[in-house]
Write a structure and sequence with these properties.
- By secondary structure, this protein is of the alpha/beta class.
- Helices cover 35% and strands 14% of the residues.
- It has 12 helices and 10 strands.
- An 8-stranded mixed beta sheet has the order 1-8-7-6-5-2-3-4, sandwiched between helices. A two-stranded antiparallel sheet has the order 9-10.
- The mean pLDDT is 90.
């Protein structure tokens, strides 16, 4: 009906609609884990509750909770009314400084310009892949690995080439296979340490060997370190940027796993550019971040206190719980004929194999 109250003519049913389908990006996007988990309505035993073992969400069962200090920090940020508006696309300056300070070591000193805040670490990985690769080029990703890597890349027309992890060697990278996967269209190597879904933790020397391959082929590294420092007793986590004197690295991390708040959606990219070759990449990451307005400003406002206010004893307690659970699961699954669980070294996952691999 128009403004004068006259009834508008009905368009013919055979009217040609355009566009008639989803975009190429939409049609190429498929997240297999989310498709299965969100579409799973089966009730094989209605009398018993389903135990969800499919997602790395530490909040599911309610036995792992964020530290009280973290909750108080967010309440304070909310009540201050200072963080209700839009923030810079790359994140509030004070929040970026806090991440830089939290991430700096004796070998690598970050500052705020090296940090880009994102809507969770998955967005950080998305930004890095989008910035480093063009359609038709490829990135190397671990196998077994987090399915989202492939989802993000292939939706953009970027190819993925898997390199093998070795189950009989605690899931370290098969370096010879990694080398063999590199071709003229390879633009980056993506590594995940500690690993989802293998629970592996790479040694200092193994990371140095990976860096040597990247150096030889002049390939930057995307490092998914969302499980940083989440390792079991006797293991040590080494940020790969700490070991690199000449390989540029984009490290992706965030609050979700270590601080047990995946739904808060606060992640970040750390830019390590020891030889100054990432000038255009820095600009590109900023440009990509401007497509959205970043992550929650309420959480950003609390970030400086969150990253400094949680005692180490809390993190130790969380990892003790996860390790005890892993050992229990390993012992029980190991009793099942035909299944071979591989004891993880960290993170929140355990791979269970069949006899084909052994």
């Amino acid at each position: 009906m128009n403004l004068e109250g006259e009834k508008m003519p009905t368009p013919p049913l055979d009217m040609d609609w355009s566009p008639s389908g989803a975009s190429l990006l939409a049609s190429r996007t498929h997240n297999p884990i989310r498709t299965v988990v969100e579409g799973c309505k089966l009730k094989p035993c209605p009398g018993k509750p389903m135990i969800a073992l499919s997602l790395g969400d530490p909040t599911v069962f309610g036995n792992l909770n964020p530290h009280e200090e973290v909750i108080c920090n967010v309440i304070e940020s909310l009540k201050s009314s200072k963080f209700n508006g839009y923030g810079p696309s790359t994140g509030l300056e004070e929040a970026r400084i806090a991440v830089a300070d939290y991430s700096s070591t004796k070998n690598v000193q970050y500052n705020s310009k090296d940090i880009i805040l994102t809507n969770g670490s998955s967005a950080a990985i998305d930004y890095c892949i989008t910035c480093l690769a063009n359609p038709g080029q490829n990135i190397l990703i671990p196998f077994p690995g987090f399915p989202l890597y492939r989802t993000l890349a292939e939706s953009l027309g970027i190819k993925t080439k898997p390199y093998n992890l070795m189950p009989t060697k605690s899931w370290v990278i098969d370096l010879n296979h990694l080398r063999s996967q590199i071709d003229e269209n390879t633009v980056a190597i993506l590594i995940n340490n500690p690993s989802n879904p293998c629970g592996s933790v790479f040694s200092y020397q193994h990371l140095k060997d990976i860096l040597q391959i990247a150096r030889t082929h002049h390939l930057p590294i995307i490092a998914d370190e969302i499980y940083e420092n989440m390792v079991f007793r006797g293991q040590e986590f080494f940020p790969i940027a700490d070991l690199s004197e000449d390989v540029p690295i984009l490290t992706c991390s965030g609050l979700s796993k270590r601080f047990l708040v995946p739904g808060w959606r606060v992640g970040w990219i750390k830019i390590h550019d020891p030889i100054g070759v990432f000038t255009e990449i820095r600009k590109g990451l900023v440009s990509i971040s401007q497509k959205t307005l970043g992550c929650s400003t309420i959480i950003q406002g609390a970030l400086p206190r969150i990253l400094t206010g949680v005692p180490q004893a809390y993190f130790d307690g969380v990892m003790d719980t996860i390790e005890k659970t892993a050992k229990l699961a390993h012992s029980l699954i190991n009793e099942v004929k035909g299944l071979y669980p591989i004891m993880p070294q960290g993170a929140m996952y355990m791979m269970v194999m069949n006899g084909f691999y052994f």
